[in-house]
Amino acid sequence: MSEDQPALLVVDDNEDNRYTLMRRLKREGYTNVTFAENGQVALDHLAEQPFDLVLLDIMMPVLNGYETLERIKSDMRLREIPVIMISAVDEMDSIVRCIEAGAEDHLPKPFNAALLRARVRASLEKKRLRDQEAGYLKQIEIEKKRADDLLHATLPAAAVHELKATNAVRPRRFEGVAVLFCDVVGFTKYCDKHAPEEVVSHLQDLVIAFEAISAKHGLEKIKTIGDAFMATAGLLQHVEDPAIASVRAGFEMVEAARQHKAGWEVRVGIHMGPLVGGVIGQKQYSFDIWGDTVNIAARIADQADPGCVLVSATIWLNSRDAFNGRSKGMVELKGKGTLELIQCIGVA
Question: Does some domain include residue 145?
Answer without folding.
Answer: no
